[in-house]
Design brief:
Distance between the termini: 10 Å
Number of domains: 1
CATH superfamily: Longin domain
Strand content: 25-35%
Order of helices and strands: EEHEEEHH
Largest sheet: 5 strands, antiparallel
Number of strands: 5
CATH class: Alpha Beta
Helix content: 25-40%
């Protein structure tokens, strides 16, 4: 059971943009890592874009399961995991991350934010913490 990506996005009026993300591509071949990371970023944006405000969904993409939660305020989270990772745990993680993110990052920064401008460093910690085997 693995988590590969944890992203926070903003579903604005014209389109969705990435605010912050963490990736674990260590299980991939060194030469594949950047393209796998690009695929995960693109897929996260696409799934958030196609999800309605206030919705949760799990979407199968190739051998991955992408879990998305879009809050009513436009803040969205996406977890990309393997097929064995429990869906309930993914949504618990998304709830926790989005709540914490909305408390630490001003809502005024969401529409114009980018990974370079948003200062929120907890995603890597959550990704590794939730990487542990679930009994």
């Amino acid at each position: 059971m693995r988590l590969y990506s944890l992203s926070v996005l903003y579903k604005g009026d014209p389109k969705v943009h990435l605010l912050k993300a963490a990736y674990d591509v260590s299980t991939f071949n060194f030469f594949q890592r950047s393209s796998v990371q690009e695929f995960m970023t693109f897929t996260s944006q696409l799934i958030a874009e196609r999800s309605a405000l206030g919705s949760r969904a799990s979407v199968k993409e190739q051998e991955y399961l992408c879990h998305v939660y879009v809050r009513n305020d436009g803040l969205a989270g996406v977890v990309i995991a393997d097929n064995e990772y429990p869906q309930r745990v993914c949504f618990t993680l998304l709830d926790k991350v989005l709540d914490e993110f909305s408390r630490q990052v001003s809502k005024m920064d969401w529409p114009s934010g980018s990974p370079a401008t948003i200062s929120y460093s907890a995603l890597d910690g959550y990704l590794s913490k939730y990487q542990v085997q679930i009994p």
